[in-house]
Amino acid sequence: MNDNTVTVIPGDGIGPDIVDATVRVLKALDCGLEFEYAIAGQTALDQGLDLVPEDTLATLKRNRLALKGPITTPVGGGFTSVNVTLRKTFDLFANVRPALSIPGVKSRYDNVDIITIRENIEGIYSGLGQTVSDDGETAELRSRITRTESERLLRFAYETAVKQGRKKVTVVHKANIMKSTSGLFLDVARKVREDYPQLEHEEMIVDATAMQLAMNPHRFDVIVTTNLFGDILSDLCAGLIGGLGVAPGANIGEHGGLFEAVHGSAPDIAGKGIANPTAIILAGAMMLDYMELHDKAKRLRDTVRDVVGKGEVVTPDLGGRASTTEFTDELIRHLTQ
Ligand code: NAD
Fold first, then answer.
1. Interval between CA 232 and ligand 1 midpoint (Å)
2. 125 catalytic, yes or no?
3. Distance (Å) of CA 42 to CA 50, 70, 81, 179, 280
4. Are 232 and 221 contacting, i.e. CB atoms less than 8 angstroms apart?
5. Domains of the chain
6. How far is CA 206 from CA 21, 161, 182, 212, in A?
7. Whose CA is nearest to atom 8 of ligand 1?
8. Ligand 1 close to Cβ of residue 268 (< 6 A)
């Protein structure tokens, strides 16, 4: 592992713009990082390469740290998701998605502070048993949950809660209906949590969780759940703090991490120069924390919160008129003044 070299995958749609913004900001922060660029997804296919080309795999293996823009995944047919491929290939088993309100950003609630930790390689996203009958009338998809992966993820979640001084962990499931898969996950949670008596424990069914998040998000602290539920609930949490433009995420494995925004490639605004890079810049701050550059991470986070919170130079999704570049310039001005 190269300690200070980060693989950068610009991605599709708004990806190159927001990744460029993030690299500029990280350079301004002067953390001594080196950046190695690589491609994946449609960009790679367009160049006649594999979905995740050999060179990209090699740089990821070497650096074990990556900053990735969103990658378009066609709905239905087309190629397998690059994101799912990368998570599986590099065993990035935990997806950490903090939703932290930024004072000044218009949103339904103030002071939301929820971390969703989502199982990242199993469940309904494992891609197992995807079939459609010859007559096109019946479709199937298998979900697989294992005790080993559930335990690894749950232990990571409880450890993260302890390390970050959190008080409560809510295990979200649907074990009343999906008795096998969700039931197994819940069973493992009940065992693992015995090792964490310092935390308050709670279990909640996923539909009730969605309602509670909308009605009273302040009752949540850390949520840990399986892949699909975590994907949906973390977008819900992003909505609570002002939208996808401000919600970062980290895919964490035993030996490395891949940092990205929760949002996708936003084809509706691609090429317009108005994408909000806040989410992936905050993912950059998560990467700095992961590298134990905590002072730099805090400085970056504080600067983003300051500039975004003031609301004077922000992108249209946050009610402003700034372009991606103008917003990034403003962040850099604050960081270097
Ligand atoms: P999306 O997140 O790209 O967009 C949803 C809405 O949010 C759009 O209106 C978009 O303009 C807006 N939005 C998203 N990010 C924004 C930003 N930074 N600034 C301003 N507005 C922003 O969701 P989608 O349209 O459902 O997905 C588009 C593509 O992205 C799909 O192919 C999907 O599979 C892919 N995707 C990739 C990832 C990833 O690479 N991690 C994650 C989610 C979706």
1. 13
2. yes
3. 9, 11, 10, 38, 20
4. no
5. 1-98+242-336 (3.40.718.10), 108-113+126-240 (3.40.50.2300)
6. 36, 20, 10, 10
7. 266
8. yes
pLDDT in tens, the chain (337 residues): 447 999 999 999 999 999 999 999 999 999 999 999 999 988 888 889 988 999 999 999 999 999 999 998 766 555 567 888 888 888 999 999 999 999 888 899 999 999 999 999 999 988 788 899 999 999 999 999 999 999 999 999 999 999 999 999 999 999 999 999 999 999 999 999 999 999 999 999 999 999 999 999 999 999 999 999 999 999 999 999 988 889 999 999 999 999 999 999 999 999 999 999 999 999 999 999 999 999 999 999 999 999 999 999 999 999 999 999 999 999 999 999 8
Distance CA 186, CA 201 (A): 12
Angstrom CA distances, 280 to 46, 210, 244, stand at 25, 25, 10
Q: What is the chain's length?
A: 337
Cβ of 120 closer than 6 Å to ligand 1, yes or no, is no
- DSSP annotation of 144 reads B
**Cα separation, 265 vs 72, whole angstroms:** 6
CB of 304 sitting under 6 A from ligand 1 = no
User: Backbone phi, then psi, for 156, in 5-degree steps?
Assistant: -55, -45
Give the 3-state secondary structure of residue 37.
strand
